[in-house]
Give the backbone structure.
Amino acid sequence: MKKIKVAVNGYGVIGKRVADAVVLQDDMELAGVCDVVSDWRIRVAEKKNYPVFAFNKDFKKQMTNSGVNAKGNLDDLIGAADIIIDCTPKKIASKNIEKYKKANIKFIVQGGEKHEVTGHSFSAENNYATAIGLESTRVVSCNTTSIIRTLTALKKAGLLRKARGTLLRRATDPWESHLGGIMNTLVPEPEIPSHQGPDAQTVDNELDVITAAVKVPETLSHLHYWNVQLTRKASKEEVIAAFKESTRISMINYADGLSSNNTIKELMLAMGRPYGDMYEVALWQDMLKVVDDELFYAYVVDNQAIVIPETIDAIRALTTIEKLATNSIQMTNVSLGITQKFIEK
Amino acid sequence: MKKIKVAVNGYGVIGKRVADAVVLQDDMELAGVCDVVSDWRIRVAEKKNYPVFAFNKDFKKQMTNSGVNAKGNLDDLIGAADIIIDCTPKKIASKNIEKYKKANIKFIVQGGEKHEVTGHSFSAENNYATAIGLESTRVVSCNTTSIIRTLTALKKAGLLRKARGTLLRRATDPWESHLGGIMNTLVPEPEIPSHQGPDAQTVDNELDVITAAVKVPETLSHLHYWNVQLTRKASKEEVIAAFKESTRISMINYADGLSSNNTIKELMLAMGRPYGDMYEVALWQDMLKVVDDELFYAYVVDNQAIVIPETIDAIRALTTIEKLATNSIQMTNVSLGITQKFIEK
């Protein structure tokens, strides 16, 4: 079988993880990674023997001067790939998109871009099928991905009427903490609803979801609190069974000592996950509460990692190398070690 | 008019604020403050010319050795007062209560004690009248006070059906941060519902309220996010008008630069409030959102200050020096500078 050649533009927080994940897939190969930096960050890519490309001529010169062996520019990378994953910052991505379209290469953008850019927003367990063969899609953001995963599970079980969430957003990415964050305060987003609710509706417009969000002074992960109006009275067991239908939700227990974002992060590191990444939504099973026809729960989202498996699946959908969502999800899960049970017996 | 003699047992975070507030009331005088410490904390009380008492003989000796002029023991203070406000830590308070009952002195406990201890839980705007002449009451905690204030306002306007809240609780008191807190993580309470909902029902059992709570790594104040099911469709203006019926809710605006817990704290300091205390619930007016018959809003609660005016009102209710809630609230508000408009025009 011919392997799909995947290019990654932007070797930052998401890009480097996408590249590492692509390399783990049997049906893909990494055509190369492209960036503007010449420092330790891109040298890590060289160490991994990833083909390195520079964003343009000027950056290529800088790389050469810094001893980084750039194989070419973005145009060269595009020429060598079947699909490109754009992981560059917001304003830069929109300009790249014109280039991709001109070059007639399939592309995937991140959740920071507008839905209109591709006309399709992707979340594997919800709408893989609608992305088959498309020229482009947008993998929704970390928070939105977690919302769709959990609400899709409830929806499939016929339990979901409407969902209201409060999102505690981590202040900044860990490796960028030195560039500015917040401390000893809380910074609510100025508007309710926050954007994540409408964003989830770009994937599934049947979802009745409203969110409020607040920035908190920590860098590990997001924490969501949800109050869901069910379609009927349900038992706790029914709800848990519904969540367990998703292969990317992992039930955790406070009683196992997983009592906070940092304990969960430490577990991921102990499990040997790269960067301590958690691809799953970690949802507290013992904390989860059903009161008549209302459901309350909380979960943790790793904002650097959760979109990685989604991106891998999106590559398969767009390139049609796998037409069944369940097959792609299964392959991706195995390759990344995604599990529904971290330490649960 | 004879002034009510108020004793304060425990000169800590709450006790020192209660003492300062008592001194500001025309109808009260401070019989004294009682504590176990001999360091800078109790010397501040001496500097303010507050009569200082020691918890017992041994502590009195320690105070004397440290040069603190203790006027007597707790028993002496009880003998010199009409009512005592217990601001001691949880386990100590329960033992004190036996002493108060034996001495036949009226007493007020803090929200950390169980409702059963007094059989009455107090929140001025909700149930002042039911506390008139009682031997004792319990001023509910900071979070519960804020819940009752806001929900009572909606209830009085006939708008409240049920309320669901997510509480971001500050990790520890600012002055006790050196004794341990949390950093760079979030620590959810193990159980949903958290205790604040049932606690609010000890004041008003008609309230349909469920809360979830999480400890966050900051020390300034609490932040609440609420989703309220209204009894009917309502306009934003109606809801704001309802909140404005409470004299202890202050509407703030993100657009005025009040965009976080620390900006609100700085405003209180700029206003010359002692310790930068905020007695009011600071509720974001511009963020507040009504969607059909659902209401969403967020507010900030100063957990050191919000119970102080409530405690002053509880003193008046128990001692019957003022039988009308509105009169007591008005007196307390004026004495402490409580306002519905911090900087709003």
Q: What stands out?
A: Chain B has two domains: 4-140+307-336, 142-301. The interface with chain A takes residues 164, 166, 168, 182-188, 190-193, 210, 212, 214, 216-220, 223, 225, 227, 254, 259-262, 284, 286-289, 291, 294, 296-298 of chain B (CB under 8 Å). The first strand of chain B starts at residue 4 and ends at 9.
